[in-house]
Amino acid sequence: MASVTRKPQANREERRGQIERQLLDATDRLMADGTSFTELSVDRLSTEAGISRASFYIYFEDKGHLLRRLATQVFADLSGAAAQWWEVADRTDPSDVYAAMAGIIASYRSHQPVLIALNEMSGYDPLVGETYRELLVGIAAQLTRVIEAGQAAGAIRAQLSAQTTASTLTWMVERTCHQNLPSQPGSYDAELARTLTDIIWGALYLQAPEL
After folding, report:
1. Could you say which of 3.50.50.60, 1.10.357.10, 3.30.559.30, 3.30.70.2570 is the CATH number of the domain covering 63-204?
2. Which entry of 24, 35, 85, 173 is 20 to 30 Å from 166 by CA?
3. 92 — alpha (psi -120 to 50), left (phi > 0) or beta?
4. Is 65 helix (H, G, I), strand (E, B) or coil?
5. Splitting the chain (211 residues) into consecutive groups of 10 residues, what average pLDDT does each group show?
């Protein structure tokens, strides 16, 4: 009798990740015309993503659960953009900070509808709000390590509280993008990236930027 082998858990997680990415792209497309997340039905989201309604409910309890998972995907993209600076911060090159800010802004533009939905639902869905805050706290924690390493190397101001400064800068970038980008054209993005770079560099580093 042939043995029955269960699919490894890794396969299920890989499939979940694939479906989450399909649903993230579908949500971005469907909300691009101004439709709110609350107006999107599970049927419409599933059809746009190319999956069945049954598949949706295999992986997600409801739309709130989906939004929390989409938040994880979006913030992975934002963290990936920020890593353009974090991973080479020991070079103390302001162009790395600029590349990170430009990447964050581009990711925000790409996922703007989902990020707007996260902000809206955070106000009345405690689980969404908690997820949103935890993701930003996670980004601030990574920036804290960058600041501490810079302080140890003598490049970043020693008097700064690394944790408080990282949290402040993280929320500054998040709020700035959320408040300004929806009402500004794409031509504004380079100016914003440069402004954020100047502010962050001036707050952290002992040497003046030369871009």
Report:
1. 1.10.357.10
2. 24
3. left
4. helix
5. 54 81 86 83 91 89 87 91 96 96 95 86 87 94 97 96 98 95 93 97 82 52
CB 87 within 8 A of CB 156: no
Note the pTM of the prediction, 2 decimals.
0.83
CB 184 within 8 A of CB 193: no
Taking the domains of the chain in order of start, what are their residue ranges?
63-204
Tokens of 168: 């402040």
User: Angle of helix 9-31 relative to helix 112-122, nearest 10 degrees?
Assistant: 100
Contact predicate 94/209, CB 8 Å = yes
